[in-house]
Amino acid sequence: MHTARTLIPRTVRSFTRRVGRITDAQQRNLDTLWGCYGLEANTGMLDLSTAFGRDAPIWLEIGFGNGEFLVSLAAANPEVNFLGIEVHRPGIGRLLGRLQEAEIHNVRLFAADAVEVLCCCIADGILQRIYLLFPDPWPKQRHHKRRLLQPDFVTLLGNKCAIGGQFHLATDWEDYALQMMTVLSAAPGWINPAGVGVFSPRPPERLLTRFESRGLGLGYGVRDLIFIRKF
Question: Engineering a disulfide at 34: which of 38, 104, 105, 122 sits with its beta carbon 3.0 to 4.6 angstroms away?
Answer without folding.
Answer: 38
